[in-house]
Every structure is written in structure tokens, then in C-alpha cells.
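Tutorial, part two.
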Amino acid sequence: MKDDDKTKEQLVAELQAMRQRVAELEQAEQVIIDSEAKYRHLVETASDAIYLISEDGFIIDTNQSACAALGWTKKELIGKMVSDVDPNFSVETFKNFWESIPFNQPQIFETTHQKKNGTLLPVEVSGKKYQLADKIFYYGIARDISERKQVEWELRESEEKYRALVNGMRDTVWVIDFDGNFIDINSAAVEILGYSREELLTMGPVDIDAALDAAAIKQLIKEMPSDEIQIFETLHTTKDGRQIPVEIQSCLIKYQGEKVILSIGRDLIDRKQAEAERLKLKKLESVGMLAGGIAHDFNNLLTAVFGNIELAKMLLAPDHKALRFLESAGRSMESATHLTKQLLTFAKGGDPIKETLSIGEALTEVAQFSLRSSNVKLHTHIAPDLWPVEADKGQLSQVISNLIINAQQAMPDGGIIRLSAVNLETSGGRYVQITVRDEGVGIPPQYLDRIFDPYFTTKQKGSGLGLAITYSIISKHNGAIRADSKLNQGTIFTIRLPAADITKKTVSANISSETDQEPVAATHILVLDDEAVIHEVLGAMLEMMGHNVVYTVEGQQAVAYYQTAYQNGTAYDVVIVDLTIPGGMGGQAAAQEMIKINPQAKIIVSSGYTTDPVMANYETYGFKGVVAKPYRFADLQKVIQQVLKASS
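Running the prediction step on this input gives:
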């Protein structure tokens, strides 16, 4: 119907309807505006960054939190591609991502956003793809997870530090659940027990500790106090069946939210060995004290035997049949003397009593003596012009004897030992080089650096002292000793001793040689010694030399005799004192008192403790001479002559 045909009432009604429609449209528009305002308010006030992304990867809308997080203005951020703010999403990567995600299904993932200044921001993105009208968008919310990542990193670092600390421990570490199973272990447990980590994590304490069974371990766990550390010793069995003594410290801890037992096992092998070594050392100290006392007493006896043999030889005609037997007895006494020197060196060590020696003949003689009744042959090469050395002949003989005996023991089926001594001139000085070479089993390379350590031995019945004493003696002679060895080929010991000043008077180191001495004028001699047997033999030797002798048995008595004689103008020409007087004043203290009386007192020190520091440095203590027990007639005559000549 045309408007012209409509009545006035009809037109008014249509107009009212149109007005109503317009009002409804305006109301609907306002609802949309209000809704959009609410949405915008929610988006803009959200603490997380919000992005609306088009299908081709452009940011078409965002919020203020996104701008604040990345440092861009909203105007700068809108229109950028995803790849501009997320280095993990290239254009191609975003395309693949877009194609792989379904509609209206949320995805949550972690990625990294890049700020305007280039720094990276870890974020967790939750979002989904949806369609609005005829367009498809991706709506994503990005939450800053920097703090969470920092906490995770710190936890991971703490875990790594804990793991490194635990795995770096030499002690075994076990984490045990309440069912008696290992749920964690450290590297030391794997290394010490010989099982793999995987094997141990299928096991428990009952599998490595024979003293435990399933019931016992559960009882231990049940009774374990929550606030105490339990300590006990037990034995752990390795995969190859060895048993290792261990000290266990156990306590309850929280591990991954559960109560568990933490046990730390300390290998006690070294401690047990150290305890055994301490006991061994105490025994050796006791044996050493006993050996020192025996050697001292034995040297007194040897002095008497030596003296009587020599006195008997002097009283016999040169062609007397008994001389042969006396000479044989004398050689045996030399061997006994060598043994006492070894006892004393073992007992106390001590500084060498040095003199300038020609050692060529002595080396051969000691080696031959050490190989008596042996199936080993000795080949020697001693330079005829061998330089003299400053040495203690007794200690040097001990060194050679130790090396020869070691070489012989390395060849149980026989062989050849080669002993040589040559002169060696180097930029560092002049030396006498002595070598002892065998054809024996050799020394394993892993032991070669330890053979001079005290108590170290590869022999079942060895004490581990022979080479340690040898090294000590050579060191105290300012020398050096080295060992070279090859398995099943043999060992070479090389010694270098500084050569002596060739202008000094040299004596033979031959252990059985006797040196004729020039006669000494009759003198008045005071003797201090508590042994009656020494009085007898020493007195006989001195009287045979033509001296007048007075005997004392204690230091104060000797000092009183000396003072009386000195005040009367009949001072003793020489005093011979023994260092050790049990229960009374010894020779050293007595000598000091005599020197106070007469600073020019000529006192000779004598002792069976040949390694006593006083014997090695007698002049420091005011003595004019030294004679070590056991001494022979010639030794005694020589030192008296030297003391008297020096004073004159």
C-alpha cells in the first residue's frame, strides 16, 4: 500500500514502530559498546601480556602489560610480526604452528620473548585459535616466568652442587627407603663395590652386608631415632667377593618429600692399616730398644774377645799352630761386629763416625762374606786408583751387605752379582760410584719409588728396614742412591759418595786389616768403665803398650781421681771414658767436670753405642779422640798416639 493510500493512523503507527526499532538498535549498539569497553578494560588491566595475532603472523592488538614487558609502545608493537618479538618463531615456524593447531583447543607452551633492548624474557604462553566473523585469529596470553625459571635454575644448580659434592666424596653415600632398597647412591659406591649404578639401584644393604638380613634391616629402620646419627662398624662385600671394613653413619632425612635413611660409609682399610702400622711401630720401637741394649752389651763382650784374641796372638810365636785358629776367630768376631752395627743402626740410626777411607778391598770382602754358603757368584770390578771417601767403615759395610743380600735373595736359583766401584768426575764434584747389579726377578714399576720407605717390603718375611737403613746411611754421608729395575731382567743399585780430599791421610777400610803403630811413650792413663771384663782386657792392652793404668767404675769417682792427681801435679796424660754408666755419672758428664778442672784434659770417648751423636761429633763435646767398641789393639794404640801427638 502506497503511503498516499495509508490513513493517518496507519502512518502514525509505522512511525512509532520505526522509532521503536531505532531505539532497539541504539540499545543493542550500546550493549556492544559496553561489552567492548568491558573487554578492553579487562585486557588493559590484565597483569599478563595479551596478543591478538592474525593468520599471517602479525600482531593486530595487544595490551599495556605486553608493552611494559617488552619496552615497546602500543603503536610500535601493533603491526609487528610474531618473529619480531619471539626469536623461536620465524615466519616459516609460525606458519607450521598455525597449521598444526586445531580451533578452540588451548595450547600451553614455554618460549622466549625479546625485549626492545635485546634482552630475553622467558614466558609461558596459553592461547587458542578461533574464528570471529569470517576471520581467524590466535588469542595468546604470555606470562612472565622469570622468577620461576630463576627458582628452577637455583634448584637445578643446588641439585648439581649436591650431586657433585656427593659424587666427589671418597666415602660411599646411600639413600635407602623404608623397604630397605637403595634409591640413590654416589660414584664412590660404584667404584668401591665394583657394581654398576644400575645394579646397585636394584639392591639394598642386605646384598652387601653379610651381617644383615631383611628382618634385621627393617628392625634397624624401625628403631632408628629421628634426631640422632647412628655410628657403627661393619663389613661390606664387593662384587668380586672382597670384604671391606667400613664405618657407617646413618640418619633420617627428607628426600623428594619422603622420609628415607641417609647412610655414609667410610672405608676403614687405611685406618686399620695405620693402626696395624702403629702397633708394628711400637713393637719395632720395643725391639729397637732391646736391640740397642743387646748391641751395647754385646760390643762390650766383643771388645773383651777381640782384645784377648789379639793379646794371645802377641804372646805366641809367629809359627805357632794356634795362630791360624785365632785369626779365624778374629774374622768371625768381625762378622759379629758387623751384626751389632746393624742392630744399633736399626735401633737408633745415628750419625756416621767418618774417617778418610780407601774402600776398594773392603767392598769385595764384605760382598764375599755376605755371599758365604750361597749359590750366587760374585764378579767385581774395583778401579785400582779408586779415590778415598769420608765414611764410617762400619755403616758403609752395612750398606754393601744389605744390597748384596737383597741381590742374592732376588736370585733364588743362583746367578751373578756384579759389584763395581769407579771414580766419577762431574761438574758437581768428584765421586766414587758403587754399583750392585743382579740378574733377579726385578722390582715391579709401581713399587720402585717406595722401596726406600720404612717398613715397605715385597717379601713375605721381610721387615722393610734394610733399604730404608741403607738410604739413611748414604744420605748421612752426603751421598745418593738410586735403583733401576726391569722385571725378570734384574736390578741395579747405584751409589755415589763424595770423594775425600786426597791430601788427607787415608786408612784402609778392610774390616780385618791391622795397622802397625809406632810405639807410644809410657803414659799415665785413667779408665772409666763399669764393666769388669773391659777393665781386664783394656788394662792388659794398655799395660802391654807400656802405660800405667788406674781404673774407675763411676763418673764421680773418676772426676775425684782426676782432680786429686791434677792438684798433686801428677795429672793423667790420657783419660778413656765409657759414655754410659748405668745408675751413675756417665762419661760425657764426667768429661765436662774434668775439663773444668783442666781445660787441656786429653779425654778419649768410648762406647758400645757407636751411633750415639757424641761418638760422631766427639770434638763438639770436648773430647780429643774416639774409639768405638769393639776395638782392637791397633785401634786403641792409634787413637792414644793421635791424641798425644795433637796435644804436643
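The chain is about 45% helix and 25% strand. In part three we will examine how such features are distributed along the chain.
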